[in-house]
UniProtKB/TrEMBL annotation, chain B:
Signal peptide: 1-23
Database matches in Pfam families: SBP_bac_6 (PF13343)
Keywords, sorted A to Z: Signal
Organism: Streptomyces spororaveus
Keyword Lipoprotein: no
Domain of life: Bacteria
CDD domains assigned: PBP2_TbpA
Protein name, as recorded: Thiamine ABC transporter substrate-binding protein
Keyword flag Signal: yes
Amino acid sequence: MALPLVFFGLFFAYPVAAIVGRGLKTDEGWQFGRFAEVLSRPDIADVLWFTTWQAFASTLLTLLIALPAAYVFARFEFPGKQLLRAVVTVPFVLPTVVVGTAFLALLGRGGLLDELVGVRLDTTVWAILLAHVFFNYAVVVRTVGGLWAQLDPRQEEAARVLGAGRFTAWRRVTLPALAPAVAAASLMVFLFTFSSFGVVLILGGPSYSTLEVEVYRQTAQLLDLPTAAVLTMVQFAAIGAILAVHAWTVRKRETALRLVDPGRTTHRPRGWGQRTLLGGVLLTVALLIVLPLGVLVERSFDTPGGYGLGYYRALQDAGAGGGTFLVAPLEAIWNSLQYALAATAIALAVGGLAAAALTRRGGRFVRGFDALLMLPLGVSAVTVGFGFLITLDEPPLDLRTSWILVPLAQALVGVPFVVRTMLPVLRAVDGRLREAAAVLGASPLRAWREVDLPLVRRALLIAAGFAFAVSLGEFGATVFIARADRPTLPVAVARLLGRAGELNYGQAMALSTILMLVCAVSLLLLERLRPDKTSGEF
Amino acid sequence: MSTTKKIAGVALAAALGVTTLSACGDESKDKTAGASDAPKSTTVTLVSHDSFNVTDSVLKEFEQQSGYTVKVLKSGDAGAALNQEILTKGSPRGDVFFGVDNTLLSRALDNGIFTPYEAKGLADVKPEYVLDKEHRVTPIDSGDICVNYDKAYFAEKKIAPPQTLDDLIKPEYKNLLVTENAATSSPGLGFLLASVGKYGEDGWKDYWSKLKANGVEVVDGWEQAYNERFSGSAGGKKAKGDRPLVVSYASSPPVEVLYGEPQPAEAPTGVSTGTCFRQIEFAGLLKGAKNEEGGKALVDFLVSKKFQEDMPLQMFVNPVTKDAALPELFTKHGVVVEKPENVAPETIAKNREQWVKAWTALVVK
């Protein structure tokens, strides 16, 4: 408990409090009158309304589209499943600039949809919602699917033997068991879409703005710290409210679950119903995720002289061309991997400890801590980044120009994933199993190794995968604090896109494709890490 | 209970292991820098925005001659980078800041983040660029924000491309222009300021109402405007952009040539020279700099002929010194903007927020 507390205090609460304080405190004391002043502005009211309803809509739509997939990934066995699971996580790491490009190609003027059925969705709210589904699909599939795969299907079967209908059995047995994971996933999707930045900026055009976009504008562009501080506090309050509701629904439902090895719960789809379901999910994934990614890959090969590797070869020369503009892409990949590894390690350590502490479920204080851990997801990178600047400026903590700042900032976003993924599983571990082991003479260490670890390891790896992916793709904080000589892949892509010229555009697409590959391969490796090759679902 | 602690313990051990591991490769670099920091600073740090760029060999030459090692910190776009300096006033991250332009100059000066320093070589700088008589900032480069046009489109339609701001509201250019959000994008703001410069503080709104009636499209950033919507750029062609007019830079056509694949003999895009706003970028010695001597040497370097002649192909801007020669790419494919629109930095500082708000209400909403 101490480490996560110190970590959050030092790298989150303190910087954010400092920057908010800078905005709201003048020589005459605290300016709380600012709240009324800012919140009564009609443009701010518009922003608040849009932020809220689009987040609700995005979350609902994501659940609707991704829950069947979570089931399919949890229970069915089909060729290429592992690869597909990595692929659906790829969007998660892509810089929004790149995704915006892909979506415009599909939904915009002259896009695929336009050519086929004459429908254009760019600058409508549908483009934003669909892009949010695209980004957050993996959150639901991985969080819910991870737990679903470990639920013993025999419990549902037992209910049916006892006379319950298929739906009743599912509703009475499986749904309550899944509820915490579904709630956790919805919460994360809601927080992500509530604080959506890049997607809204690019696909919504300037007429749509979320709270996060507004905070960025007020801080980074206008340096209107009082307004930014008020908006940050509003975002805090909103997230606090959501977390409270979430905590209330989850606490009512959590029970120790009977978790089994996922290898025992999957089977090949049987009958036309299951096959249709599988087909439907595969089609959705193809249209919603593979197609936009495919567009990017296609563009990276589409050189003026026909399809070829021209842009990839140009990437190789870019490093030699001089200038601090671009390091060799190989180096950017290596930078990204190093940062992401460090961030994952920090996130696992902090998140793991926090989840362990939370499992003990002790009182109000711990519940408040639970909420605190989620806050970084809802606070804008620019607020945290600017907070770092004015707080971490004295030795021994003058980290403002240190490389460690990047993984620290990335880990802040990774920790909530680790906690949310680990908690349902940790809480679901039946204490009696442990007791039984102890009664049979196992030492606490042995009991942990034989009972907890096998059940938790999977969640740990899923959590690590998330933290890693988040870190790999994180852009907002990184662009502020990454050192010029060590750009990450997303930063390098953004720099290329910031310049005119065919070669720059092509190289940006090529580098994005590499980013996708690096992410997919890393996730595949991570899932392969499980030592028990014999079990498992693949 | 002890079990959960142990899980945490393992996680922590793993974390520390990996952190140390990944630190290894990096630390070696840091240590050399840190070690040289200790006796008397031989490292000089330049803080700038993401677009800063210099050829390695040019920088190396400066390092060899001066004996300083240059560290570059880039932090976000120009506005964000400057605001970070304002926030860290008195305890700056570096010695010199490069990248404050005339639209933000007053904010920088009012906040007093710079120490006056008259650069060696200031005499070579064209006097019209020296906006601060106290020399808290030194002009480094200039660039023009202008409407670019797709040559092929206008050739095919057999109409002349627009040349002036007045042209853009004519019916033959209806629904052709895409620009950036003045609230979030610097070319967007520049274009708004061009209209303020031309039509005055009272007349620009009227101009924009006409522009809106003539179908101007606003997107958020330069990347989308140029790479997605503009039909003349390479990215725009792939994305099937259908706007043949875009607000970009006077240097964009040369860039299209340089990064063409293969390089075209002629730029596919042109510049409407009567639509331009001139941006001037400055550098200054930061107050509280740890290495003031090094900082001064660095400012001198930025206005030296070597750096000034390196800039055009690195950052696609124009030199500000009299004798710096432009590369052939610029003389051949670039344009000279004779009469850019201009607005005084103090006027911009006083009105910017209000103008942007009025513009947003008028054009976006």
